[in-house]
Amino acid sequence: MKVERVGGRLTRLFRRDTLLIKILSSYFIIVIVLLSVFSFVLFRTYSNKSIEQISQTSENFISQSYYIADTMLINVYYNFYQLFNNSMDNDLNYGLYVNKPDQFAIKMY
What we know:
- By secondary structure, the chain is mainly alpha-helical.
- The chain is built from three helices and no strands.
């Protein structure tokens, strides 16, 4: 019964004071508009910052992969160079300092 009384009082109050209804409705509309604008600006700023950060991270990953590939290629070139120099030195040393050839050297001629 108290609920009916309170509800009845509120309806009577709202019917009597149309100015109160106009003030409350304008307040709610202003609050909704301000919250919408603030949410939109906040979302826009956050999404732009996120996109910028993601693109920066992607650039870092790409530059790191290029650096690693370049380092590996230099390492391969260096290893082939060392292999070539060592095999050339061994062949030259074998030919210069060995007096009699072995069977492998004979088959090569």
